[in-house]
Amino acid sequence: MIQLQSISKSYPVGRNVTEVLKDIDLIIQQSEFAAIMGPSGSGKTTLMNIIGCLDHATSGSYYLNEKLVTGYSEKEVAHIRNRDIGFVFQQFHLLPRLSALQNVELPMIYAGIRKKERRQKARDALHQVGLSDYAVYAPNELSGGQKQRVAIARAIVNQPDLILADEPTGALDTTTGKQVMAHFKQLNKEGTTIIVVTHEPGIAGYADRVITIQDGLLLDGNDIGRSRETLT
Ligand SMILES: Nc1ncnc2c1ncn2[C@@H]1O[C@H](COP(=O)(O)OP(=O)(O)O)[C@@H](O)[C@H]1O
Ligand SMILES: [Mg+2]
């Protein structure tokens, strides 16, 4: 589903260039649940933004569903971001003036879905995350965990194949963070590919595969996972 070949990303800083991602090779298959771990500043968000087609690599090739992303038109990329990928962020990114239900409806407005269908699907998505009773609440009337569940409902409402979550539990307490991860685990069981960036080993433990990034270099834990399997 996702194939990165020699992906590098650099930024000009004054007269120099900082290399944020260095020659990254990574394959993520359909229906995988992967965690990306690494210290602050190691390039996790940069990598997620490239995978989510929010940013371009400086060099290398990125294939999404067997097609070179640079081969898609702007319109196709916007469509992919809206329909095929769900995004979840550390700070929720909910619109404060909209209710929970209206926030969940947003991706469907962009997708051009009619109001009645939108309402129903948004209600279904809120129901899935256990927030049916909070549809009319504004984000500032919800707890952190509830906000993140609204964000998950928004991410899943167009039934994407892929969910990208950048430190989704970073602003939550441990118990609430685990509940959020349990939602991702359930979605993964239903076939959604999930990639979660996290600092916390306990959170990464929900994933089937842990990928470590350090100074823009990838250390894939695939082999570690396999050797662990042979040990147990
Ligand atoms: N627009 C930018 N311009 C220059 N440097 C950037 C930019 N965005 C990110 N960086 C640098 O890239 C490195 C990796 O950032 P990031 O991907 O956000 O790391 P992480 O998410 O792992 O904390 C950091 O050193 C950061 O300062
Ligand atoms: Mg980050």
TrEMBL record:
Protein name: Putative ABC transport system ATP-binding protein
Species this protein is from: Lentibacillus persicus
Keywords: ATP-binding, Nucleotide-binding, Transport
GO cellular component: membrane protein complex
Domain spans labelled ABC transporter: 2-231
Family: Belongs to the ABC transporter superfamily.
UniProt xrefs under InterPro entries: AAA+_ATPase, ABC_transporter-like_ATP-bd, ABC_transporter-like_CS, MacB-like_ATP-bd, P-loop_NTPase
Pfam families in alphabetical order: ABC_tran
Example GO molecular function: transmembrane transporter activity
Lineage, opening ranks: Bacteria, Bacillati, Bacillota, Bacilli, Bacillales
Entries under SUPFAM superfamilies matching the protein: P-loop containing nucleoside triphosphate hydrolases
